[in-house]
Amino acid sequence: MVDKQEIIRYWRAVLLLEDGSLFTGKGFGYKCTRVGEVVFTTGMVGYPEALTDPSYKGQILCFTYPLIGNYGVPSYAMVDEFGLPVHFESWSIQVSGLIVHEVCWSPSHWSSRKILHEWLHEEKVPGIYGIDTRRLVKKLREKGVMMGVLKVYDIREEEPDIDALWQMLESSLRYDQIDFVKLVSVKKPVLHKADDDKGLVVLIDCGVKLNIVRSLLRRGYSILRVPYDYPADKIMEFNPIGVVVSNGPGDPKLCKSTIKCIKDLVEYKIPTLGICLGNQLISLALGGDTYKLPYGHRGQNKPCIDLLTRRCYVTSQNHGYAVDPVSLKETGLKVWFLNADDKTVEGVRHEELPIIATQFHPEAYPGPNDTSWIFDYFVKLVASKGQSP
What we know:
Blueprint: H1 4-10, E1 11-17, E2 22-29, E3 33-41, H2 47-51, E4 59-63, E5 67-68, E6 97-99, E7 102-103, H3 116-122, E8 126-129, H4 133-143, E9 146-154, H5 162-171, H6 181-184, E10 190-192, E11 200-205, H7 210-217, E12 222-227, H8 232-237, E13 242-245, H9 256-266, E14 272-275, H10 277-285, E15 290-306, E16 312-323, E17 333-339, E18 345-350, E19 355-358, H11 373-383
Parallel strand pairs: 3-4, 4-6, 5-7, 6-8, 11-12, 11-13, 13-14, 14-19
Antiparallel strand pairs: 1-2, 1-9, 2-8, 3-9, 10-12, 15-16, 15-17, 17-18, 18-19
Helix pairs in contact: 9-10
């Protein structure tokens, strides 16, 4: 790998947005050019988890917190009792590119095995630093998320051709035109066996965060991850006691096979939990509608109100789409949680069937554990065979 001082001295980067905005800074990670939807997260910690979250597939992620990389990067080899990596939400970086104000070159933490630059370089992900991320985020909040192109280069080798980058940006497919779920889902069923096996839960993998799997395993349930397009009849052949529809990237309306599967599963009246994208897919399967948020909800400090108890929880979130509450009128679904900031739907539950879903992430990681009880509630639904616990 190139010497750190050479990277700092010679590597540069440009970020071009679809509105014509151009940001110039220093480069790190991998020298290449990537196109993606530019989004931001307000999380102050948890960059190893965020960068490996499959829900960020196809996106160039900007951290609003100014210093990233200060506790380094741990090893994928550090696993828990289930063989899942402790510090990551998948086995690779999922973002298309990274944007930070300042990157740390000398991290300090007992679990650190490499610096952020080395990790991005190994996984061929470009990064830009030294730009005004506050200006960028203000622009995204005012105009909404935009497509962008990020180029990292060495000034000793080349200079960026802005016209060529603009042509690349214009000719690329937009984020909501690509079915990213098929890129992050498992290709065939994968079994995660619990020590205290209370039964089998089938997880429809649309890009699941590994802590969702871990949260259920620690409650004593074996998990069978199946591909996003697995049919309902094949799922039921495994005789599951519950179904989970995971988080994932992209426009939920592109997930037609998953929506059909959920629609078919409803007929079996099996206890079902949806998380993030799963919340949107369940709503669509039952006749509801979804829409794109201007700049989404991404961070670890999002307040959500439980309409049954009026309690407010601090939640971890990563989504760019939401459920239209008006569209739920004839679906049997009722709004369960509301976002305290903008009153968007953060969860639904069925009036008669054992179906619950949250738009936020009850497994957190990174983030608060306030809503981990959602898994306990689902476990009670499973134990009571679909009757209200």
